[in-house]
Amino acid sequence: MARIRKAVPGVDPKLLVKDAAKLLPDPARRAFLRGGVSLGAVAFLAGCDIVDGPTAENALSKISFFNDRVQAWIFGLNRLAPTYPESAITKPFPFNAYYSEDEAPVVNGDTYKLKVSGLVQEKKSWALPELYALPQEKQITRHICVEGWSAIGSWTGARFSDFLQRIGADTKAKYVGFVCAEGYTTSIDMPTALHPQTQMTFKFADQILPRAYGYPMKIRIPTKLGFKNPKYVTEMYVTNDYPGGYWEDMGYNWFSGL
Amino acid sequence: MTSAAATIKKPKVIHPRWVRITHWLNALAMIVMIGSGWQIYNASPLFDFVFPRSIALGGWLAGGIMWHFAAMWLLVINGLVYLTLGIASGRFRRKLFPIRFGDLVCNVRDAFAFRLSHEDLSVYNAIQRLLYLGVILAGIVIVLSGLSIWKPMQLQELTALFGGYDSARVVHFLAMSAIVGFLAVHVLLAILVPKSLKAMIIGR
């Protein structure tokens, strides 16, 4: 199996920040459609000029939402992401975010509380020792970034479906949303939240989750792209109102299932 | 007799309507898929180069992905229609087979001597047969490798067939390169033999 490690962009934080800055769109004009030559060819072939403007952007968003429904339809609770032996773990595992590693949030584990809200019976906050007391299991799975690179890691934590049961979450609700220490947000569909491999992760490679990988808690979802795996999670809520997310609101496909 | 009379009255159809429609829909889908694919490639290059931003569709990664996963529907649905009709109508069998090695050698020699005939557009020479068959296969490989990159969990058996997620990306890239290479030759020859372009537009 050819593994292309050298091109993993997350390895160089400086390069990454530069990339992120370049990738971040102008909020006023999201510039989905700029593309010079190829766009010209499309306009030529389509014989019209609708490809560059709000009409096309709107149409593309609609197709992206349609793709969400298709992906939800093919998603099954019994289909598991492949797991790997310890020897397959990628070292070093890349750091990736829209900021550099030294700008990653520093969360104080002693005062940390996971806030729980929305359509749940028990809205109490959870301190770290309480979370650590939940039954835990380990998974060695492949993390796949929306950018295309992938890396295999080892994550240990509690099944998210167990936690949802404990807090009496309405599992008929549509969405679970997450808020992170640095303000990052994302959200997932309930079937994915209940998937047996969706994990509240406390350890990476058998060590307490390091700051770079989301201390004190990340949500590991091997059935979704990396940006749907939030780190430094401080709040979660259950809702029927579409919550969107940081990258999703800028145009990444919401479901982003693997 | 009547068929002979009809042939005289009306030049024979080289490309039936379904071929022309699927051809141009495929051209549109391919250009969008290739341009947006370059945008996605640039986010995490497999090799030591990136595609110039001016020829990458979508402005940035999210835009590229949106175009890619919109045009994939057109590419796949149109491609399935084309393959189904091509097989059912017998067109593939008639036009693309047999490919004889001896013919291929002769054609290549003629091509380099600029003696390759394009008199009868309804009959493909051995080089054309090989290239058209090859690009159809590349089209199938690019869709299957694309599916295994998009859904490496849901379609993990397919992904494994390509040697895993990372090698499926390389296969996807190579299939794109083959199609772009074909496209360059294909467009160049259509310009050199304009009546072939006319035949693909009006059918004869």
Highlighted features:
heterodimer, A: alpha+beta, Sulfite Oxidase, Chain A, domain 2, five-stranded mixed sheet, five-stranded antiparallel sheet, 6 helices, globular, disordered N terminus, B: 204 residues, mainly alpha, Fumarate Reductase Cytochrome B subunit
Structural description of this entry:
The complex is a heterodimer of chains A (258) and B (204). With 258 residues, chain A is an alpha+beta fold. Chain A has a domain at 74-250: Oxidoreductase, molybdopterin-binding domain (Sulfite Oxidase, Chain A, domain 2, Alpha-Beta Complex), CATH 3.90.420.10. Chain A contains six helices and ten strands. Chain B contains nine helices and no strands. Chain B is an all-alpha fold and 204 residues long. Chain B has helices at 2-9, 17-43, 61-88, 91-96, 101-112, 126-150, 156-161, 165-192, 194-202. In chain B, 73% of the residues lie in helices and 0% in strands. Chain B has a single domain (2-202), classed as Transmembrane di-heme cytochromes, Chain C (Fumarate Reductase Cytochrome B subunit), CATH 1.20.950.20. The interface between A and B is large, with 56 and 47 residues.
List the helices and strands and how they pair.
The complex is a heterodimer of chains A (258) and B (204).
Chain A lengths: L12 H11 L12 H11 L7 H21 L38 E6 L7 E2 H5 L3 E9 L5 E10 H7 L8 E6 L4 E5 H4 L5 E6 L2 E2 L9 E3 L12 E7 L19
Parallel strand pairs in A: 1-10
Antiparallel strand pairs in A: 1-2, 3-4, 4-7, 5-6, 5-10, 7-8, 7-9
Chain B lengths: L1 H8 L7 H27 L17 H28 L2 H6 L4 H12 L13 H25 L5 H6 L3 H28 L1 H9 L2
Helix pairs in contact in B: 2-3, 6-8, 8-9
For the biggest β-sheet of chain A, the strand order reads 2-1-10-5-6
Radius of gyration of chain A: 19 Å
- What's the helical proportion of residues of chain B? over 70%
- Mean pLDDT reading of chain B: 92
Succession of helices and strands of chain A:
HHHEEHEEHEEHEEEE
- Give the percentage of residues in beta strands of chain A: 15-25%
Strand content of chain B: under 5%
Q: Which spans of chain B of ≥5 residues are poorly predicted at pLDDT below 50?
A: 1-7
Under the CATH scheme, the architecture of chain B is: Up-down Bundle
Quaternary form: heterodimer
Distance between the termini of chain A: 19 Å
> Mind telling me the CATH superfamily name of chain B?
Transmembrane di-heme cytochromes, Chain C
Q: Using DSSP, what is the number of strands of chain A?
A: 10
Global structural class of chain A: alpha+beta
| Helix run count of chain B | 9
What's the CATH architecture name of the domain at 74-250 in chain A? Alpha-Beta Complex
The general outline of chain B is globular
The top-level CATH class of the domain at 74-250 in chain A is: Alpha Beta
Shape of chain A: globular
User: Under the CATH scheme, which class of chain B?
Assistant: Mainly Alpha
